[in-house]
Inverse folding.
């Protein structure tokens, strides 16, 4: 229940806390036998997205996860979790393999956004994100996405076209960072706290907007997140969702995902 | 070169002649590229291209329709919708209302069917004059509806993009329109229908990172600025100046992200020609 009193900006700070658990922490805790596999087979292995295979009991999974560094050194290696186009192309490769071998896909979303750099533009950042969503939308296997920290902009959504989207209680998911938002919309980057309140970026707001399907609680113990309990709950939710989806016909799985995104955003008929 | 000079001189003469006539303010406009003061009508009659330096001015939806669609064949889709203002921003509905009055447009995109040299297509045209062509729920829904209509009527789809990206005022709902339009395009793809994406100046952000980059064929106007991240953001991130020609249509062509750069005057015939190559392919 601690969430009730937090402001949106406080949640942003929690979501960004460098000590917050990262994708690999969840993957290693929830899945058995995780094996990371590398490379987009085109240009390089971009380390801001981690891909691999894992298992829960007898169920195999393909894992695609945005990974922030847990130390400065790791952060530099992982470009602070900001993917270059190669990360998305690696993700696409693993999505297609998942489909070929009939494995459900679980993606973990945690990024400030796709990397804005010269090389990223030269190598088609926009195209890479678009293609990732395009391939994801077509997958004939169940896909679950979990927003675990920062889910910012197209860089997050690129691996978020899922049948079920879960979000941790203190994660955020938004069109842009509150700083960027206030600077673009109000031409004043100092109004980021106000922007955070306005943007509807908390799990509760996004659940109300039907952007996400479930909020995963972050239970507390001794003033800190009880990671064991949280991971156990998340594992249960993943298993439940897969059980619900895995017996659907492949076409139904695609249709289920299609309808979810087809209906994103209400509008008024004039 | 010589021809260029002659042309330039001719324009100059015409302009000088005109300038002797008493023309009220408002009929002139300054070229954003070369700074030349131009007679508006001379620009309009030149496909909105600067007669002095060849700079492509952005086009109003109506002008673009005139340029691309056979006269009298455009039929807009009967889809009149409005945003719910999901973030409850106070000034957003007001801003939309003012823009509608000012531009004569309902939103940042117009969608319908029309003929290109007699070939019927579904056509979507964006307009930078309406909140920088940004994509909120209305733009996302209209593009998606258009894709669905192309499938239903088995028609080629042509989208002219010009956009700053996802619309800030609608927050996450705008972001989700990227997934919505992209998902719809998977169905068009499956139906074996042609989608020609035309990128015009500027095309950025969530539009580049969704439907604009997913054409079977991607065309661009010369020197159009196209990218994912804005130049200021990139400069601030990397802390250095950007190379010349970065994110231009020519840059994208060089790096393999567009099929062809087509001059404005040739766009209609080029699209027509491409459609001809794809006839009878639909499933």
């Amino acid at each position: 229940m601690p969430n009730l009193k937090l402001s949106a900006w406080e949640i942003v700070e929690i979501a960004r806390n460098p000590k917050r658990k990262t994708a690999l922490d969840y993957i290693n805790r929830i899945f058995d036998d995780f094996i990371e596999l590398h490379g987009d087979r085109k240009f390089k292995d971009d380390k801001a997205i981690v891909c691999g295979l894992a298992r829960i009991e007898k169920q195999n999974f393909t894992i695609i996860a945005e990974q922030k560094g847990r130390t400065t050194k790791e952060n530099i290696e992982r470009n602070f979790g900001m993917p270059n186009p190669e990360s998305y192309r690696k993700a696409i490769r693993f999505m297609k393999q998942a489909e070929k071998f009939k494995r459900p896909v679980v993606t973990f979303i945690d990024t400030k956004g796709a990397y804005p750099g010269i090389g990223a533009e030269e190598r088609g950042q926009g195209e890479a994100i678009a293609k990732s969503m395009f391939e994801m939308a077509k997958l004939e296997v169940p896909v679950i996405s979990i927003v675990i920290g920062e889910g910012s902009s197209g860089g997050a959504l690129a691996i978020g076209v899922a049948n079920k989207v879960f979000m941790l209680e203190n994660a955020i998911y938004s069109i842009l960072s509150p700083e960027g938002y206030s600077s673009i919309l109000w031409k004043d980057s100092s109004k980021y706290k106000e922007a955070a309140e306005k943007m509807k970026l908390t799990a509760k707001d996004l659940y109300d907007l039907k952007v996400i399907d479930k909020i995963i609680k972050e239970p507390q113990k001794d003033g800190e997140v009880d990671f064991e309990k949280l991971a156990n709950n998340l594992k249960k939710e993943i298993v439940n969702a897969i059980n619900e989806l895995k017996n659907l016909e492949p076409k139904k799985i695609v249709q289920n995902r299609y309808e979810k995104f087809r209906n994103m955003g209400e509008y008024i008929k004039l | 070169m010589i021809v260029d000079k002659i042309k330039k001189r001719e324009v100059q003469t015409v302009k000088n002649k005109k300038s002797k006539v008493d023309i009220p303010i408002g009929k002139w406009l300054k070229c954003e590229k070369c700074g030349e003061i131009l007679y508006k009508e001379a620009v309009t009659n030149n496909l909105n291209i600067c007669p002095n330096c060849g700079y492509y001015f952005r086009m109003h939806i109506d002008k673009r329709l005139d340029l691309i669609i056979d006269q009298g064949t455009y039929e807009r889709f009967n889809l009149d919708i409005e945003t719910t203002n999901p973030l409850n921003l106070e000034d957003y509905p007001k801003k939309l209302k003012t823009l509608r009055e000012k531009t004569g447009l309902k939103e940042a995109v117009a969608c319908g069917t029309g003929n290109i040299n007699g070939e019927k297509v579904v056509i979507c045209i964006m307009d930078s004059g309406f909140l920088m062509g940004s994509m909120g729920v209305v733009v996302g829904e209209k593009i998606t509806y258009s894709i669905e209509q192309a499938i239903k009527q088995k028609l080629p789809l042509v989208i002219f993009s010009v956009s700053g990206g996802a619309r800030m005022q609608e927050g996450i709902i705008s972001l989700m329109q990227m997934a919505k339009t992209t998902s719809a395009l998977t169905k068009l793809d499956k139906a074996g229908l042609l989608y020609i994406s035309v990128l015009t100046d500027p095309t950025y952000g969530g539009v580049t990172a969704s439907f604009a980059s997913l054409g079977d064929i991607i065309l661009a106007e010369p020197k159009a600025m196209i990218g994912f991240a804005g130049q200021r953001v990139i400069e601030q991130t990397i802390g250095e100046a950007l190379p010349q020609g970065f994110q231009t249509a020519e840059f994208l062509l060089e790096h393999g992200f567009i099929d062809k750069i087509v001059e404005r005057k040739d766009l209609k015939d080029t699209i027509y020609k491409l459609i001809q190559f794809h006839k009878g392919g639909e499933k």
User: Anything to note?
Assistant: The first strand of chain A starts at residue 32 and ends at 37. The mean pLDDT of chain A is 96. The first helix of chain A runs from residue 8 to 16.
